[in-house]
Specification:
136 residues, alpha/beta, 5-stranded mixed beta sheet, 18% helix, globular
Length: 136
Amino acid sequence: VGAFTLHAIPAAHEALEQDEQGHYRCIGLIVEVGPWTLYHSGDTLRYANMVDYLRRWSIDVAFLPINGRDPQRGVAGNLSGLEAAHLGRDAGIGLVIPCHYDMFTFNTAPPDAFVQAAATLGQPQRVLRCGERLTL
C-alpha cells in the first residue's frame, strides 16, 4: 500500500486458529517502510515456530503485548512482560515497545516486569506513556 509493504503472520490469541481455507483467524503484521521494518503482534502468545517466522525479517521495532493472560478476569492470551522480553531477544528484534498496559483496569499489567526482564536479557526496549511519540 503506497510506500508500505505489509506481511501477515500468524498470531495465537490462546491458540493458532485457522478457518476452513487454512487462513489464520488472528494475525500480526510486519510493516516495511523505507529503511524500517516494524512488527505489531496483535494479541498473541508465543507459539512453536514464531521466532522462525519473525527471523525472516530484520525487525527494527516490535510492539508486543505485556498484559499476559488471566481467565478469571476474562483476559484472553497475550504475552507477559517476561515472555515479550524473551521473544524480542530470541527473534533478534532491535527495539521492543510494550503495549496492552494502562488502558483498562481489568486488563493491564505494569511494565516493570518487562523492563526488568529486558534489562537482564540485554533486550533494548522503550516504554511509551499514553500519547508519547517515538521518533526513529
